[in-house]
Structures are given as C-alpha cells and as structure tokens.
Amino acid sequence: MAKIIAVVTVKPDKVKGGLPAFLTADEGEMTHIAKLLEKILDAAAHRLGDDLFIIVDRH
Question: Which residues contact 6 (CB under 8 A, 6 or more apart)?
Fold first, then answer.
C-alpha cells in the first residue's frame, strides 16, 4: 500500500497531522520543490489542486 510521506503547499492551513510539510511562496516554487522531492526520495508527486502536492512512497 502506498504511503503519503510529505506535503508541499502554498497554503499552510491545508496541512493537518504529523506529516512533513514544505510551505512555498508561490505555485511555481511548489511545483519545483515537489519535483525535486520526487527525485530525491524516489517517490511520486501527485498534484491534488492548484495549491497542494502530496509525495507518495512507491515502495
């Protein structure tokens, strides 16, 4: 089963619970950070809206 390992967002109020959250200044930075985390963590970045990505462990 896949596991959410991080959240990347421009809206801090979207983040609840104990996940690591990466807060960004704008949509461009959010996309950039999500793609970097995807590569670094060997994970999948999924965009859930204009203001939120989740990073999911593939293993």
Answer: 19, 20, 21, 22, 37, 41, 54, 55
Q: 13-41: per-residue pLDDT in tens? A: 878 888 999 999 999 999 999 999 999 99
Contact 55, 33 (CB under 8 A): no
CA distances from 56 to 5, 25, 30, 46 (A): 6, 22, 16, 8
| Residue 40, CA distances (Å) to 12, 17, 35, 43 in order | 23, 23, 9, 8
Q: In whole angstroms, what is the distance from residue 58 CA to residue 27 CA?
A: 24
pTM of the full predicted structure? Answer: 0.90
